[in-house]
Amino acid sequence: MTGQHVQKRKSAGSLREAIRQIRRNAGLYLLLLPAVVLVILFAYWPMLGISIAFKDYSAPLGIAGSLWTEPWYKHFFKFFNSYQFTNTVKNTAWLSVYTLIAAFPIPIVLALGINQMRAKRFKRFYQTAIYLPHFISTVVMVGLLIIWLSPSTGLIGAIYGLFGKTAPNLMGSKGAFDDIYVWSDVWQHMGWNSIIYIAALSSVDPTLYEAAMVDGANRFQRMRFIDFPMILPTAVILLIMNAGQVMNVGFEKVYMMQNNLNMSVSEVISTYVYKIGITHAQFSYSTAINLFNTMVNVMLLVMVNTLSRRLSETSLW
Amino acid sequence: MVTPMTQTRKRSAKIHRTRADRVFDALLYAISLVILIIIIYPLYFIIVASFSNPSAVTGGKVWFWPVGFTLDGYKALLEAPQLWTGYGNTILYAAAGTFIALVFNIPAAYALSRKDLYGRRILNVFFLIVMFFSGGLIPTFLVVQQVGLYNTFWVMVLPFSISIYNIMIARTFFDTSLPGDLHDAAQMDGCNNLRFFFQIVIPLSKAIIAVIALWTAIGHWNSYFNALIYLRDPWRRPLQLVLRNILITNQRIFAVTTGEAALEAVRKANLLRYTSIIVSTVPILAIYPFAQKYFAQGVMIGAVKG
């Protein structure tokens, strides 16, 4: 009984202590307030709206007033049984796995190369040039692709013309969609993505190079045995982060690259959610598909993170 | 005794270097040159094409310099008023959006960086959750509609101005580059938190403020998703949405239907694609050389956090 009493007094004391601490730093909470309010309004409040994935949303009744579906998984089963389920899941997974395989190693190689350059002027120019495409907007990027790859007005047409051939219509080709998507991404972001590795390399202790030189190591060997191990931890972390995003293909670029000819390979979950929700105004169904995707993403992230903690002792949390 | 030995060793190392390393260098620069061409030439092609006669471009005659020099493409820009409306809108959205983002993100990041902030852990989790989990498209859309922001100026600058990523980067910056005893000293002198933040922290944090301002401004300049979802009126459209019509949806801008005039319209529409790409990207390319340092810095601050 006395123990309970002490416990009570203690918690009252810690509450008083908390209030004292908060009052002492009241200004800090004022600085936090606008951000907290916006996050609650536009990030947490919409989470309540996820409930419409289990309802038949109707605008006049509102989110709270709309009726629950019977059974609760109605919209989810509708998606699992639709022909778009395998299609969108497959396309989403393939696009991001392909991107990961192609786009992950190249920045590492670029950074290793840049780090070995001794011509200062050229090095700076080279870096400036390869970072540049990162700042081109997605709209312009897809516009550029259409211009370059157009059989009539583009570079491709001209190059084929040199050999007296007619270029295929690549933007309208089903087989080329994934290649164009992935390699244009590599083209646009490889330079920028190398910065993080260049940063890691800048912390290499120069005495390591000197020691290696004394041992007769050539430049390639120094790169292989000093630089490469140096950036490996950064690479592992980035790989984990990317692997956790495998079912998350961005909307903007895919949506603009879509046309009637490539739709069967270019429809991904995010574009399908948009079309069902905004174009066809099926709010509940769209939210259900979106929620399914979010759950898969969260699960993947947790799995990949756990796996990597076991295997390499590097993890996000 | 010692000197000749080290000398021979040095020499042998040098010989070794010149042989294998010369091959290495040659390969390195050759590959880099190829990459450089792959990056620069396609962009250069757009510039050359914008000054060329479209039929020369179609005929595959345009490679390194304009063929059939013309300024028609740039004249066509003047006949596309929606592009300039978009330009103006984007400048407004970018300016207001960047200002709001700074006012909301930087103070929050500073507060979170303070070790003596009671409830710091919970607040961190509060912000982090949003990074991995969200309501998704439709629930967010419904909220925006419900608070009356749909199809307004404010939807472009306010609701999505909080960037957790930017808060994390700024927080790391405050953690690592503000001396911890600075605040203790100021407190001793009776300086409260708000005054300390505005008079001491902000002047010391120009670098991180510049990084976040530039990122946010460029993000506004380049984005079209929010406008696609939350705007209805064509006159509110930002640059990228207008560009999307010109470049991708290929909307007929010159409403001409017959014979010669139709051909001329197609010719102009083609030219307009090159020139609109150029005028919409020029502002970013103009600040890029000066800003590059800051961009890279931001990535590196983020990298420290891992």
Number of strands of chain B: 0
Rg result of chain B: 27 Å
**Oligomeric organization of the protein chains:** heterodimer
Instruction: Name the overall outline of chain B.
Output: globular
What is the name of the CATH class of the largest domain in chain A?
Answer: Mainly Alpha
Helix percentage range of chain B: over 70%
Architecture of the largest domain in chain A in CATH?
Answer: Orthogonal Bundle
Major sheet of chain A: 2 strands, antiparallel
List the uncertain runs of chain B: 1-15, 251-256
* Helix percentage range of chain A: over 70%
How are the SSEs placed, and which strands pair?
The complex is a heterodimer of chains A (317) and B (306).
Chain A lengths: L1 H23 L1 H24 L5 E2 L5 H4 L1 E2 L5 H8 L1 H21 L1 H12 L3 H12 L6 H12 L5 H8 L14 H25 L4 H9 L4 H25 L7 H7 L5 H4 L2 H11 L3 H30 L5
Antiparallel strand pairs in A: 1-2
Helix pairs in contact in A: 4-16, 5-10, 6-10, 7-10, 8-13, 10-12, 15-16
Chain B lengths: L1 H49 L3 H5 L13 H7 L2 H33 L6 H13 L4 H10 L17 H14 L2 H9 L4 H12 L1 H17 L2 H6 L8 H11 L9 H47 L1
Structure description:
The complex is a heterodimer of chains A (317) and B (306). Chain A has 317 residues and is mainly alpha-helical. Chain A folds into two domains: 2-68, no CATH class; 82-312, Orthogonal Bundle (MetI-like fold), CATH 1.10.3720. Helix content of chain A is 74%, strand content 1%. Chain A has a two-stranded antiparallel ribbon with strand order 1-2. The radius of gyration of chain A is 27 Å and the shape is globular. The two termini of chain A are 41 Å apart. Chain B is mainly α and 306 residues long. Chain B has two domains: 2-58; 72-305, MetI-like fold (Orthogonal Bundle). The longest helix of chain B has 49 residues, at 2-50. Mean pLDDT of chain B is 86; it is low at 1-15 and 251-256.
